[in-house]
Write a structure and sequence with these properties.
This protein is mainly β. The chain has a single domain, classed as hypothetical protein yedk fold (Alpha-Beta Complex), CATH 3.90.1680. About 10% of the residues lie in helices and about 30% in strands. The chain contains three helices and 13 strands, in the order E-H-E-E-E-E-H-E-E-E-E-E-E-E-H-E. The strands form two sheets. Strands 2-1-7-8-13 form a five-stranded antiparallel beta sheet, with no helix packed on it.
């Protein structure tokens, strides 16, 4: 599972790393991204612009937004089968840029950890997006983050991890149309390229969205 992440970069570095324009009036550094918030994504339909979609996928056939809170993640193993995800998997894939994510160790203490790439290198989660536009309402674009089995590092705290795409695979993920080999990209990221550290319980509340959530307790 992936229920929180961070995306903290300067505008100029976002353009350099991801090749997208940043509208300063909309973008701000986010230390504690949470479900139902409008967060940064990159799609193949508008590859040069950083867009902001609601976290929690709302399929086009949904009756209301409520389903989104249950679809913040999608299991890689069943994307092609689940009605909620299979259409987006075929044609509406996206990148979710990040600088780290949070996970809580499954024990009595529920200690939160910040997980990031060595050298604090920014990266992208593999995501899917949808547009929900029932009659008489404004369209809502939403996304979900794909998860897979954990690598050796993540196994120490959880039984799932988000799919982090290798940089060389990002454009292939965004490309439109079917690709029989896409499932091969949805594998655990190499543990030796990742780090984790315990952080403050402040991250438990989405209202705490500053550098204080990264403080080691």
């Amino acid at each position: 599972m992936c229920g929180r992440f961070s995306f903290v970069m300067e505008d100029s570095l976002i353009l350099e790393r991801f090749g997208v324009r940043v509208r300063t009036a909309i973008y701000k550094a986010r230390y504690n991204c949470a479900p139902t918030q409008n967060l940064a994504v990159i799609t193949g339909q508008d590859r040069e612009t950083l867009q902001f979609f609601r976290w929690g996928l709302v399929p086009s056939w949904s009756k209301d937004l409520a389903i989104g809170s249950k679809l913040i993640n999608a299991r890689a193993e069943t994307l092609a089968e689940k009605p909620s995800f299979r259409s987006a998997y075929r044609s509406r894939r996206c990148l979710v840029p990040a600088t780290g994510f949070f996970e809580w160790k499954r024990d009595a203490l529920k200690q939160p950890y910040h997980i990031f790439l060595k050298g604090e290198e920014p990266f992208c989660f593999a995501g899917l997006w949808e547009e929900w536009a029932p009659a008489g309402t404004d369209p809502v674009r939403s996304f979900t983050i794909i998860t897979t089995t954990p690598n050796e590092l993540m196994q120490t705290i959880h039984d799932r991890m988000p799919v982090i795409l290798r940089r060389e695979d990002e454009e292939r993920w965004l490309a439109s149309g079917a690709d029989p080999g896409l499932s091969s990209l949805l594998r655990p990221f190499p543990a030796e390229r990742m780090e984790l550290k315990p952080v403050s319980n402040r991250v438990n509340s989405p209202s705490n969205d500053g550098p204080e959530v990264l403080v080691v307790p």
